[in-house]
Write a structure and sequence with these properties.
With 352 residues, this protein is of the alpha/beta class. The protein folds into two domains: 239 residues, Aldolase class I (TIM Barrel); 57 residues, Antifreeze-like/N-acetylneuraminic acid synthase C-terminal domain (Type Iii Antifreeze Protein Isoform Hplc 12), CATH 3.90.1210.10. The protein is 32% helix and 14% strand. It is built from twelve helices and ten strands. The strands form two sheets. An eight-stranded parallel sheet has the order 3-2-1-8-7-6-5-4. A two-stranded antiparallel ribbon has the order 9-10. Helix 7 links the parallel strand 4 and strand 5. The model has no long low-confidence stretch (mean pLDDT 94).
Length: 352
């Protein structure tokens, strides 16, 4: 089980390797509280552990300027030509919605928390008693915000899209020295959608060793292959943008998972974590009986004492209860010391 999940639920380590799955609502509510509540229900039905919001307003994010660097000009961006202010105004979750969304999450027995983007957002979320916090990739370098969140004494998840090792280390150190009891770092590629080949998932075990903390993935790729692979590399927390139906549109809908995909992710991520196990050779407990289906040496014809073993009367066949096949060449040409029937297991007693 994810250490974060243990902390939030007060569970002890019972051997459950389930990753902590977060459904990111972002702006996929399309400005409708009813839609937001349906997203909570769908995330719970899919088996997610948490629903995550983003807490900001257009004014806490940028200036109301629709020209120059305040307009997205990347030709590959989903939001090309959009003014930052207008985009944030469309995508934000109204602060008065936070309480009813969190109440619905409690009713559905899943966690609800958020990414604050300034100290006023932290104040709001503290008034709602969120269980933990998420620092978005673009805020990873905002050490003042991280310090403010750390002061709440609650667990913190930090996304690391674009961040250098030094920037990640500074963020984690700031969280720890600021009073954060548990830090989770998420590997992230800040592209929307992100090409799978840019995921660089091998960074996950390296970050875990380097930083000495729980590591997961904030995923912006299409499908579930990348997050499942991340779990196989040790990721314990998976965040995935979530929408009821991509066809409904929305600022993040194009790279968000639909309910059936999220349900598959929950199931397959759990399987991937279970499959990690430990370094082990030889039969596992569930393989012990399967050894009988190996080949081994059996008498293939009725024989009398003194007869010579040949490739006709001594064969390597199933089941695997006789001598191992590696002794076939050693035994050919030897005489048996007592009679044997067709179907008898070959044993050293027959030539002893």
């Amino acid at each position: 089980m994810s250490r974060l999940k243990q902390i939030l639920t007060a569970y002890t380590d019972d051997g459950d390797m389930s990753p902590f799955i977060i459904a990111e609502m972002s702006g996929n509510h399309n400005g409708s509280l009813e839609q937001a509540l349906k997203i909570v229900d769908a995330a719970a039905d899919a088996g997610a552990d948490a629903i995550k919001l983003q807490t900001y307003t257009a004014d806490t994010m940028t200036l109301n300027i629709a020209q120059g660097e305040f307009v997205i000009n990347d030709p590959k961006s989903l939001w090309k030509g959009r003014a930052l202010y207008d985009l944030y105004a469309e995508a934000h979750t109204p602060w008065e919605w936070h309480a009813p969304i969190m109440q619905r999450a409690r009713e559905r027995s899943i966690f609800c928390f958020s990414s604050p983007f300034d100290s006023t957002a932290v104040d709001l979320l503290e008034s709602l008693d969120v269980p933990c916090y998420k620092i978005a990739s673009f805020e990873c370098i905002d050490l003042s915000l991280i310090k403010r969140v750390a002061a709440t004494g609650k667990p913190m998840i930090i996304s690391t899209g674009m961040a250098t090792i030094q920037e990640i280390a500074e963020a984690v150190d700031t969280a720890r020295t600021g009073g954060c009891p548990h830090v989770v770092v998420l590997k992230c590629t800040s592209n929307y959608p992100a090409p799978p080949e840019h995921s660089n998932l091998l960074t996950i075990p390296h970050m875990a060793q380097l930083l000495g903390c729980e590591v997961g993935l904030s995923d912006h790729t299409m499908g579930i292959g990348v997050p499942v692979a991340a779990c196989a590399l040790g990721a314990t927390v998976i965040e995935k943008h979530f929408v009821l139906n991509r066809a409904d549109g929305g600022v993040d809908a194009a790279f968000s998972a639909e309910p059936d995909e999220l349900a598959s992710l929950v199931q397959e991520a759990h399987r991937a974590r279970q499959a990690l196990g430990q370094v082990k050779y030889g039969p596992t407990d569930v393989e012990v009986n399967a050894r009988n289906r190996r080949r081994s040496l059996y008498i293939a014809q009725d024989m009398q004492a003194g007869d010579v073993l040949t490739k006709d009367n001594l064969r390597s066949i199933r089941p695997g209860l006789g001598l191992p096949p590696k002794y076939l060449e050693v035994l050919i040409g030897r005489r048996i010391s007592k009679s044997a029937k067709r179907g008898d297991r070959m044993s050293w007693d027959l030539i002893g």
